[in-house]
Specification:
single chain, about 190 residues, mainly alpha, Arc Repressor Mutant, subunit A
Length: about 190
């Protein structure tokens, strides 16, 4: 991953000061935080965990002066939040990236290519939905069935029917969705290899 900026020394000092007033303790926390962020990116199957960790620190360094004055709580939580947002950004980009290896661009129009990609994704989604239990399939399809305010009300009703909080429902759906994403990625890899 090419990076176009680096954390300037003044910002680095500010980050250390924000982590802890004792510079030695702050340095230990900094190293542990870097290690933890690399692991988080690795667990999320990101291509360049160390580069993404650098990106987190670069983004925080741009705002560290303001954050030191306004952010309350453990500063490391802010870094994890930036990492979570970066993972979301990368996953959105992933869905729109296409390998052009072995593709005859002259023979395939871009509209055909996008239709083919969309069809592959839909096929993989259908296959993966069939692999999970009926209850999980119904839950995730119902969870994403509505939009806007109706979605919020519908999700509250689902949680009530299942006898759980909306937060617990979100966690359950997140786990189902995460397993579906892994299945879809694997399926798309298999289809691309064919």
């Amino acid at each position: 991953m090419a990076r176009d900026l680096a954390t300037p020394p003044a910002s680095f000092d500010e980050i250390l000061a924000w982590l802890n007033s004792d510079r030695d303790v702050a340095a230990q926390q900094y190293l542990q935080l870097r290690h933890d962020l690399v692991k988080v990116f690795g667990w999320n199957r990101c291509a360049d965990p160390e580069g993404l960790t650098d990106e987190v620190f670069d983004r925080v360094s741009k705002r560290v002066r303001e954050l030191r004055q306004t952010f309350t709580g453990d500063p490391r939580l802010f870094f994890y939040g930036v990492a979570r947002n970066l993972i979301k950004e990368r996953s959105k980009k992933f869905w729109f990236q296409v390998s052009l290896d072995d593709t005859d661009l002259a023979a395939t129009s871009s509209v055909d290519l996008h239709d083919e990609i969309r069809m592959r994704r839909e096929e993989c989604l259908e296959l993966c939905l069939q692999k999970i239990s009926h209850d999980k399939r119904e839950l995730i399809l119902n969870y994403y069935a509505k939009e806007k305010q109706a979605k919020i009300d519908h999700r509250a009703e689902i949680a009530k029917q299942l006898g759980m909080s909306v937060e617990a429902l979100r966690v359950r759906v997140y786990r189902i969705r995460n397993s579906l994403v892994q299945c879809i990625v694997s399926c798309l890899d298999d289809k691309t290899a064919q």
